[in-house]
Specification:
By secondary structure, the chain is of the alpha+beta class. 22% of the residues lie in helices and 29% in strands.
């Protein structure tokens, strides 16, 4: 009788042992999922890029093992959220792709993180036929200037004083001013016409900049000069340039890159010209 009880006990213990072993063999390993995202360059610090996911039903502790470039990202150890640590490294021209390797406690693998950056137009880039010197708040349109002057000295009018109604002075009025001047004055060799006739780097929609457009160029002069020189161009001279903004029957506005003053001058005066064009990215 005692022998039978012993045998039964041993059988029961063996069954339990086998059952536990079977359960252990069928346990699901914790796996991390790779993360691939595409974002615009120049995000803000603290912006969430994405989250490293897993198949775990219990809490994990996440860690960045490595990243290129170093210091670009940080991770929330409890949630796996990846955020921007240094937005200066999210520059398409320098780092078009940012990568990282992430581990988690108990996970059987590491996750590979790949972040592809989308190039966005920026002041100082050589694109759209010239040097970008102004970009709107949305980042989808702006202005570029040519890398050389189109004239070292030309008159504003075609030899006859008339009102052209080129009254715009603000950003994005240079094109309308140029159209008005050319429509009123017709053929000839004068500032607006030189720009209107210009075909440069595959673009034929150049114009004489308005007062505020030239002022914006002055604010970015050092950038424009450096990029122009790097692209076989010349600096903006410390001299006076014509604006497309008309002042009166006999005068138009100028912009001095020497004194930053904007005096009107007779339309017959000779001043420099640097053409501008508008671009859109939508």
């Amino acid at each position: 009788m005692k022998l039978n009880k012993l045998v039964l006990s041993l059988l029961a213990l063996s069954f339990l042992t086998l059952s536990c072993s079977k359960d252990d063999d069928n346990s699901t390993p914790i796996n991390l999922q790779d993360l691939e995202v595409t974002i615009d360059e120049n995000p803000t610090n603290g912006e969430v890029i994405g989250t490293v996911q897993s198949n775990s039903t219990t809490a994990l502790t996440f860690t960045i093992v490595s990243q290129t470039p170093a210091g670009a990202l940080e991770i929330d150890a409890a949630t796996g959220d990846l955020t921007v640590l240094d937005n200066g490294l999210f520059d398409f021209e320098s780092n078009p792709t940012i990568t990282a390797t992430v581990s988690a406690s108990g996970a059987s693998n590491n996750a590979t993180v790949t972040i592809e950056l989308v190039d966005k137009p920026e002041i100082g880039e050589y694109k759209y036929g010239g040097v970008i010197f102004w970009v709107n708040a949305a980042g989808n349109e702006g202005l570029v200037c040519a890398v050389t002057d189109q004239s070292t000295g030309v008159q504003w009018y075609n030899g006859m004083s008339m009102l052209t109604n080129a009254n715009g002075s603000s950003i994005n009025t240079g094109q309308a001013n140029t159209n008005a001047i050319v429509n009123a004055q017709g053929a000839g060799i004068y500032a607006a016409k030189i720009c209107d006739d210009l075909i440069l780097n595959g673009f034929n929609d150049w114009f004489l900049p308005s007062h505020d457009e030239l002022e914006e160029m002055h604010g970015n002069k050092s950038i424009i000069d450096n990029v122009s020189l790097a692209n076989s161009g010349t600096i903006i001279q410390a001299m006076t340039y014509w604006c497309s903004t008309e002042d009166s029957l006999h005068a138009a506005e100028t912009y001095s890159f020497t004194t930053t003053s904007t005096p009107a001058d007779f339309k017959s005066a000779l001043h420099r010209v640097r053409a501008v064009r508008h671009w859109t990215d939508f």
